[in-house]
Amino acid sequence: MNRQQLARLLMAACDVTKDPEVLVMGSQAVLGTWDEDELPPEATASMEVGIAFLDDGPDRKKADMVEGAIGELSQMHAAEGIYAEGISVSTSILPDGWQARLRTWGLASSAPARPLFLEPHDLCVAKLMAGREKDYEFVGALISAAMVQPRIIEERLAMLSTETHKVAIARALRFVQRSVSAPDRRPPA
């Protein structure tokens, strides 16, 4: 996905929900910080974007509206090959203070949406905590390309509740440490 494709999805999400504050939480949140030409191919390979709303209630009404209108198998997906997954903010495991670190962009093509993006290190934490192979590949690619700093990822992992997420945090820390010494992007056992 590139920034223009993302901008179209953000504009459509805003139109469907009538909420201009659209939060990009999936891997494509990196496009809020960097242009696709600056990123490794693994970082922009996904054709879906995880979209949430800070004020979406427990019923996930806005997320469901996005899913129905521009989600997988929608007309937009069929026509352009891109789609949005409506998600809840609570879907991701994020470090303390993540909301204060949200980013935005000045791309007018997403107007009237005012997109917010997870800061790259917070995004890496969320991806590592999800623990899927594609998430490890994504984070490994950003580390290898020096787009993110392993030390900051480790610091952010330390902000998580160790009791609740002890095993996942340990696995994520092993991956980050191994990525620095030998860039093998497979998840640790």
Write the layout of secondary structure elements.
Layout: H1 3-17, E1 23-24, E2 48-52, H2 61-70, H3 75-80, E3 83-86, E4 116-117, H4 120-130, H5 133-144, H6 150-158, H7 162-181
Parallel strand pairs: 1-4, 2-3
Antiparallel strand pairs: 1-2
Descriptive overview:
The protein is of the alpha/beta class and 189 residues long. It folds into 2 domains: 3-117, no CATH class; 120-181. Helices cover 44% and strands 7% of the residues. Helix 5 (133-144) crosses helix 7. The chain starts with a helix and ends in an 8-residue tail after the last helix. The mean pLDDT is 93.
Salient structural properties:
4 strands; 2 domains; 4-stranded mixed β-sheet; alpha/beta; 189 residues
How many structural domains are formed by the residues? 2
Low-pLDDT stretches are: none
Rg of Cα set: 16 Å
The class by helix and strand makeup works out as: alpha/beta
- Silhouette: globular
Please give the number of β-strands.
4
Number of helices: 7
Residue share in helix: 40-55%
Average pLDDT taken over every residue: 93
Percentage of residues in strands: 5-15%
- Numbering strands along the chain, what is their spatial order in the largest sheet? 3-2-1-4
Largest sheet data: 4 strands, mixed
Work out the oligomeric state of the chains in this entry: single chain
- What string, H for helix and E for strand, traces the elements in order? HEEHHEEHHHH
Cα distance, first to last residue? 30 Å
